[in-house]
Amino acid sequence: MKARCQRDAGGRLARRGTVAVAVLLASVICTGCGQSGPRNCRISGAVTLDGVPVQEGGIQFDIVKTGDVPGGAVIINGRYQTWVSPGPKTVRFAIAGSREGLAPEDETPNATPRKYDKEPLQIDVRNNGVFDFPLTAK
Questions:
Q1: Alpha helical stretches, state H, the chain
Q2: Does 57 or 39 have the greater pLDDT score?
Q3: Which of 22, 92, 121, 127 is deepest in the core (most CB within 10 A)?
Q4: What is the DSSP secondary structure assignment for residue 41, as one 8-state letter?
């Protein structure tokens, strides 16, 4: 009987040890769950040209301040979604198609109105959100 009690005590001790190891392991694993660096924001939205959804293209979010991470996405059927670091971004577009005055040797035709090349749009990403871009040809 005495040996059985010792075995039960040892079994309880082993179970406690297993639980302690599991808790310790979970705490070590979850240490990496917090955001230690800059968090990224999920942004999405619509891109239209003169009210018509851009069928194919690309959108680029260039950094404005050092330390940010640029981002980009494909535009399909007028929609995009991507992850970018928070902060101000310069937005550039590459719309599939042709543009008047485009050199014939250009491999990838770009129908983005030139005014957006000269004066790119600016956004300030603070949180996850929707950023729509209603572009106009004039």
A1: 2-31, 115-118
A2: 57
A3: 92
A4: E
Q: What are the backbone angles phi and psi of residue 111, rounded to the nearest 5°?
A: -95, 10
Tokens at residue 14, please?
A: 């082993």
pLDDT for the residue numbered 9 = 52
Task: Report yes or no: 77 and 47 within 8 Å, Cβ to Cβ.
Answer: no
Mean pLDDT on 32-58: 81
CATH number, domain 41-135: 2.60.40
Token pair belonging to 101: 């005055």
How far, in Å, CA of 98 to CA of 4, rounded?
Answer: 86
CA distance 40 to 53: 27
**Rounded Cα distance, 136 and 80, in Å:** 18
Sign of CA dihedral 98, 102, 104, 108: negative
* Residues near 13 by beta carbon (within 8 Å), at least 6 away in sequence: none
